[in-house]
Amino acid sequence: MNKYALISVSDKSKIVEFASSLISNNYQILATGNTAKLLVKSGVECIEISEYTSSPEVFDGRVKTLHPKIFSGILFRREVEEDVSQMEALGYGSIDIVCVNLYPFKQEFCREKVH
Predict the structure, then answer these.
(1) Which of 22, 52, 107, 115 is a good FRET partner for 91, with 20 to 30 A between their CA atoms?
(2) Domains in the chain, start-ordered, CATH in brackets?
């Protein structure tokens, strides 16, 4: 089963270095939209979430990681053989590290309407 780290950050300070260290520890990087673009531009190999899930980002990118393939990878019980077998049967990978910080929602999404 593949080992993944999920990265989805609005504050991208030091994220290239962090992702590179994960790769050197045998993790594959899953990243959302602009985070993936920055990583690729910086020479860090990653898989964009929408490619991994085969589902597009929706609502201007506010919904990206709410997908069974993502949450299964995070929440399956690694010590329970039935869960491990089901993950393998589904072809899902283990997401062992999640690095996120949220958008400044008030700034980004609560804009006053102009009449």
Answers:
(1) 22
(2) 3-109 (3.40.50.1380)
